Amino acid sequence: MSKEKYKLHPVTAIINVVKALKDLLIPIIIIVAANGFNINLDYRSETFFSEMIPLFILVIVLSVTVVSGLIKWWTFVYWFEDSELRVEYGLFIKKKRYIPFDRIQNLNYKEGIFHRLFKLVQVQVETAGSKDGKPEAELTAVTKAAADEVEIQMKKAKTKQKLPVEIDLVQVAEEEEPEPASVILHKMKVPELLLLATTSSGVGVVLAGVFAVLSQFAEFIPFDLIYDELAFLVEYGYIVVMILIALALILAWGVSVGLTFLNYYNFTVCKQHDRLIITRGLIEKKRVTIPLNRVQAIKLAENPFQQLLGLASVAVESAGGGFSGENDKKIILFPLIAKKEVFAPLAELFPEYDFQVNQIVQPPKKAQPFFYRIDFVWLVPLIGAVSYFFYPYGLLSLLLIVPIVLLGRWQFKTTGFTVKDQQITIVSRLVSRVTFYALKKRVQITQGSQTYFQKRRNIGSVKIIVMSGIAGASATARHVEQREVEKILTWYEH
User: Residue ranges of the YdbS-like PH domain (predicted)?
Assistant: First the structure.
């Protein structure tokens, strides 16, 4: 392989600075808001320098950020040598990273605003040892031709390892069949994006974000004036208040739709030979490649709204690969799809799985109280405190018992599992109904447990763990007959 060293595109320096500033955005806003609106510009004042200290610190931090971004771009080089991708950067402390091509699982690509302006791409190198959702190496901004060259060198190295020494690699390359075309399995449309934003928890996240931002600027908000206006509105009529609440919810829904549209725009799932390729994003386009043999489990989730409409979302738990910035290896395969239409593409992608679960082994009737009585550990003290301090209206908190019991009964009716040949399927519910499909060869740990109270009723729980992210992905069948727990453990042992 060539030992020629390559540098990143100069846009890398801008991207590094912008990324660092984004991480410092909240501290910058807090410092500017707390000090910037009350700056004493009279340098002769005794308090001038003490008031300017936070801003001086901010200027120093920003200067260091800009300089470090420039240094990282200037010193960063990569090259190909001895079937490895080698990376080196650093001014005073040189950091080197040598990544054998045979350890590389995926090459993921991302195109942000700056990448698109200059027709560049970010390459993220994923290996089996990548942790915390971070790539093993990252080429922040290179041309698409340079990105293709990394993939070409990787394929050549892996092909060379598989072939006998006497075989001519040039002849093999000439006889090698062209890369198979991608087959589109699923592509989200605009109506599905709107439905996804409506049925997901995005609206709640937006509202929580608004409250979090407001809490940072509480001292600048005229709460007294707002309270007076609200008191006037309440006197005027509850209809006006309800209209304002409805407008706030509509606004939150609009923001949620916008975020969903930006994040999942043109969401496409393709299959290319033995790889799964997922692309999404409007402003920042992301593409992740997942070898099908790295998929450890498949998770089908239905929140109450989606279940009511016959919809579901599907994620795959992968031992390698993922979108940048995501801390686990759960990759959304279908953000929203009709449940009756989901099994055909899943069967095409994973023919070794059986997705038609007709009957499941459910917990016995004697286990029903176990699904909600643990909630009374925190619920009873809460009801007691609220009833005491807010008597008599606090007694209304007793009504919380009803939804807790109903949710427990719902979980009881949902929970179950089935074992068929080399596959285990576990169905569970916290609020959303989750169906977890895993093959026996992918299961890392099978663990049975039994508390003192479960032992008295001869019931137990069983948990399986597959490789995914740092701690792995798991599914638990709770409060089933103890003999069923033993059956699963025996199935796994043999």
Answer: 73-150, 264-337, 413-492
